[in-house]
From TrEMBL:
It comes from Pelomonas caseinilytica. NCBIfam families: GGDEF (TIGR00254). It comes from the Bacteria. The chain crosses the membrane at residues 208-227. The keyword Membrane applies. It catalyses: 2 GTP = 3',3'-c-di-GMP + 2 diphosphate. This is diguanylate cyclase.
Length: 428
């Protein structure tokens, strides 16, 4: 940025303080030809004579009035090709130092510009002429003309009768510069010496140069904006990728956490809730307004199965009992293994009679099921049923269900005992 500022400053300073382009038309080789205008071929009898051609010093002396009294010097800017001149559009001034002694009140400066749209090589007057008349006394000392002061004279416009746009002053192909005297000269001697004729101006179009500086800045700014935009987009994409990766990782972790939580609350052997899962479920149910009926199931003489048929058979019995119970429950009922061969069923919003009925149904199913796949033995289970009405402790209801179960065991097993002394009502 600092370098760009410094460069711009340098460019502006260069534009402002760069030395002018200078075209010294009297320097050797600066023009292709330089000659005096004369009514007759130059010679001893001509009224126009060089005094010192090297110093561009000449004299005119017309003794009697004549229709054509030229007394001037022409510098040819075009070479062999008369249609090919010099572009003066970027030159601003013309410095003229002319020593003149004579009778003409004015000195004329004329520049011809060849325009291919209408100028003809065979017609020396057809290149558009641009003139200015200077008072003779004003050219006693060096004078600086602005080229914009030169205008296309009416006589030339009238003579060629061209469309308006062709009559505008324009020096893009100047072919000659003439310094002469526009007045009648007869009877007086005219003495002229052209000492200096210099064109000055810019090397290039300043407006374009300033525009180039502004464009360079705009391009630079656009390039920086595009670069920053690209970098920002890249950064955004990379951050987006990181966010996506983090989101994926978070959801994977959440899934893993859910899986572990499930595992922590599920009984590995039977696939139903374990004691921790049951406790959490009971806590949840306790807070519900409907109350909950509890059914405690204990397999009868389970130890014997283990002892007789082995632990694997015992495990299989536990799995089958869990499956039988699960198959008989509603979607919102909960089953879990409380421990050993004991299962707890929690039925939300159910009457104690319905719970007892469910227990009876389960009892029959277990008794009638062929629990051992090999058909070696059957099993029975005892049930204790209790109700935790809305707003009462499920824990206390559990104790009552356990007591009812104990009664069922004591009464000979394979039976359902219902707690009747629960906290509030016997039914929901
Ligand atoms: N196979 C197997 N046995 C288990 C498991 N958990 C506990 N047990 C066994 O279950 C038996 C429970 O025996 P007890 O508490 O005497 O009860 P029971 O034999 O069913 O007698 P009652 O309940 O009075 O009818 C014990 O032998 C435990 O080792 C288990 O996950 N798998």
């Amino acid at each position: 940025m600092i370098a760009a500022l410094a460069l711009s400053l340098l460019a502006i300073l260069g534009l402002e303080f760069m030395p002018d382009r200078q075209l010294d038309l009297l320097a050797p080789g600066a023009v292709h030809n330089l000659f005096l205008a004369s009514p007759a071929p130059a010679g001893a009898g001509s009224p126009v004579q060089w005094v010192d051609a090297r110093r561009r010093h000449w004299r005119c002396h017309y003794t009697a009035p004549a229709p054509y009294e030229p007394c001037g010097i022409t510098l040819m800017l075009s070479g062999k090709d008369p249609a090919r001149g010099v572009d003066l559009t970027r030159l601003r001034t013309l410095e003229l130092d002319l020593a003149y002694r004579g009778s003409s009140p004015h000195v004329r400066v004329a520049i011809r510009n060849f325009d291919t749209r209408f100028s003809r090589a065979e017609d020396a007057n057809s290149p558009r002429i641009h003139t200015i008349h200077l008072r003779s006394r004003d050219v006693q000392q060096p004078v600086v003309l602005d080229l914009a002061e030169l205008t296309v004279p009416e006589w030339w416009i009238a003579q060629y009768n061209l469309p308006r746009e062709f009559n505008r002053a324009r020096l893009d192909n100047a072919t000659s510069i003439t310094i002469d005297l526009p007045s009648e000269l007869a009877g007086h001697e005219q003495d002229l010496e052209l000492r200096r004729l210099v064109l000055r101006g810019d090397w290039f179009n300043r407006d374009v140069a300033y525009l180039a500086v502004v464009c360079a800045w705009m391009l630079g700014a656009a390039a920086i904006a595009v670069h920053r935009g690209t970098a920002l987009r890249r950064r955004y994409r990379s951050q987006q990728r990181e966010i996506d990766a983090l989101t994926a990782r978070t959801s994977a972790l959440r899934e893993e956490q859910d899986r572990l939580r499930r595992l922590a609350t599920i009984d590995e052997l039977t696939g139903v809730l374990n004691r921790r899962g049951l406790e959490a479920a009971l806590e949840d149910l306790e807070s519900q307004p409907q109350g909950v009926a509890l059914v405690l199931l204990d397999i009868d003489h389970f130890k014997r199965i283990n002892d007789r048929w082995g632990h694997t058979a015992g495990d299989e019995v536990l799995r089958r009992v869990a499956a039988i119970v699960a198959a008989n429950l509603r979607a919102r009922d909960v089953i879990g293994r409380w421990g050993g061969e004991e299962f707890l069923i929690a039925c939300q919003g159910q009457h104690v009679e319905d719970a007892a009925h469910l227990a009876e149904k389960l009892r029959e199913s277990i008794e009638s099921s062929c629990i051992d796949a090999k058909g070696r033995f059957g099993i029975t289970a005892s049930f204790g049923v209790a109700l935790a009405p809305p707003g009462t402790s499920a824990q206390r209801a559990f104790k009552r269900a356990d007591a009812a179960l104990y009664r069922a065991k004591s009464a000979g097993r394979n039976r359902v005992e219902v707690d009747t002394a629960h906290d509030a009502a016997t039914t929901l």
